[in-house]
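quick one before i forget lol
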Amino acid sequence: MELRLLSYVVAVADAGSVAGAAEVLHITQPTLSRQLRDLERRLGTRLFTREHRRTVVTPAGAALVARSRALLADAAAAEHEVREVAAGRRGRLAVTFAGSGINGPLATALAAFRARLPDVTLSLVESFDDAEMSAGVAEGGYDVAVQRLPAPDHRLVTRRWWEEPMTAFLPADHELAATDAPIAPADLARIPLVVWPRAESQQSFDEIMEIYRAGGVTPTIAAEARTVQTLLALAAAGFGAVILADSFRSLGRRGVAARTIRGTTTRMSLVWRRDTLNPLVSTFVELATDG
């Protein structure tokens, strides 16, 4: 049954006459009368009757009017929602991010996005696997990745967002923690390393090993852990140093001293599909990189 016919039925019920409804609908009275007769023949029942020069609905007509109002409201809501999504004012944005990302400007970007588009559903997934994040965006599982080491993929656009040094998080009573001065990569030979297994995040593990190679140092791995919280807890307990992006200072772990590693830089990038059809991606990138 066409929505147009349902709107005719509702208009006649509201106007109390075919003539009044035709005027509201901007169609001729004979056209509206013919459409109503055709609909009644199709349904096999009268929808309206005349009483005291007024058109009133029959019980069957009342049932159709009630259903029609609901269907027309749903159709109008659906049309509005589609237009809002197409215009980038509603919808869903799935963002995957590295643990260090939320400690930097990502939280501010998300707050700005939420303030501008409060009706958008934000799906946020933290990950420590750069390859997994890039693949997730390339395959359509996520709209945007905020990551340090994006995979080279022709399907993806990668935009550098911010840079920060790598930092050694040391037991607070270690000799390297005696001052706030940056330390050299070679200084890391003076303390064992606490790190996540390479299988958990190959790119991040290799990035840390490159710091040791630059300092001519072979690390002694004292312990492994799979979360930043556990890594820092082990550092505080004296197991060794944890090498992380500098933004992890914001966690403020007690018993740990943070020392920037001289000459190191890690970059955070925004990654999205080159052919994305989600208009919310460009809005998020714009807000994230504004200024």
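fyi The first helix runs from residue 3 to 15.
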